[in-house]
Amino acid sequence: MTDPILVDPILVTGATGNVGRAVVHALRARGLRARPGLRDPTGDPEAVALDFLRPDTFAPALTGAGGLFLLRPPPISDVKPTLNALIDVALSMGVRRIVFLSVIGADTRGYIPHAKVEKHLAQSTAEWTFLRAGFFAQNLGDAYRPDLREHGELFVPAGAGRAAFVDVRDIAEVAARAFAEPGHAGAAYTLTGPEALGFDEVAALLTKALGRDIRYARPGVLRYLWRLRRRGLPRAQALVQAVLHVGLRYGQAEAVDPTLARLLDHPPRTLERYIADHLELWR
User: Fold this and answer.
1) 46: nearest Cα among 30, 34, 63
2) What DSSP string describes 69-130?
3) Phi/psi at 109 (nearest 5 deg)?
4) Fewer CB atoms inside 10 A, N or C side of the chain?
5) Are residues 195 and 164 in contact, defined by beta-carbon separation less than 8 angstroms?
6) pLDDT per residue as tens digits for the range 19-75
7) What is the model's pLDDT at position 5?
8) Over the chain, what is the mean pLDDT?
9) What does the alpha-carbon distance between residue 164 and residue 155 come to, in Å, rounded to a whole number?
10) So what's the pLDDT on residue 270?
11) What stretches of the chain adopt beta strand conformation (E)?
12) Which tens digit of pLDDT belongs to each residue from 176-211?
């Protein structure tokens, strides 16, 4: 594949989430125009209406765009009429550069939604880049935050598993590079943090930073699912989260990959750095 001449703006899906917000910031830091795609763009003069469940929003959101940053919202499992359909509309409108936030293992687990999007892109005319990300550091400030604030505990069924937590700010910088620089078209990058930590070690980092005791609860799967459902998480999403965390017990997220350090202008952010930068989330 060859790299196209970039024409911004770049449509950013999932722009209200941790990764999407970071990508918008990283693009603008490089002087590129980011166009947030939101279900409700009210109040953001640069945003456009985009809803994966409303195909009529696809073409208007892509009009004039030169690139597309694509991620899968957790509630969406059927990618054919949603993400893949958006890809087809983008290509029909002249968008060629597409950066897709995938996951580690998408190349070997063809049954997961991310793998189906990768396959669709690989068989298309797109100038694609896959960001196969590991376990997010931002889970601490998002999915884990209620338990940390309300109970002072990490409540995940990961057993003695370890994870090489990656900061989404680093992922966003790589995404911005993939749009701004040549040499990234047709690349699939495995992106992890610089060290693998067990959840007992994560609890110790939080304890030190917050000055109060944080413990790792090690719940069983059923107890974990019960708490998620009690919080109102949809059944399918709760099951996916449970499977992901049980997978940690078998080393699915513990490998540290050197790719991120090679792509950045600085060392990858550690989990300790993420915690120090976001203490207000747990106080």
Assistant:
1) 34
2) EE---TT----TTTHHHHHHHHHHTT--EEEEEEETTTTT-TTSHHHHHHHHHHTSS-EEEE
3) -115, 85
4) C
5) yes
6) 999 999 999 999 999 999 999 998 889 999 999 999 999 999 999 999 999 999 988
7) 44
8) 94
9) 18
10) 98
11) 10-12, 34-38, 48-49, 67-70, 97-103, 127-133, 153-154, 162-163, 187-191, 197-198, 215-216
12) 999 999 999 999 999 999 999 999 999 999 999 999
Contact (Cβ atoms closer than 8 angstroms) between residue 97 and residue 185: yes
Looking at the predicted structure, is the pLDDT value of residue 4 above 50? Answer: no
Tokens 């293992």 -> residue? 105
Contact (Cβ atoms closer than 8 angstroms) between residue 71 and residue 19: yes
Angle at the Cα of 246 from the Cα atoms of 106 and 84, rounded to 5 degrees: 30
Is residue 37 within 8 Å of 13, Cβ to Cβ?
yes
Spatial distance between the Cα atoms of 219 and 189, rounded to a whole number of angstroms: 33
Cα four-point dihedral sign 58, 61, 67, 73: negative
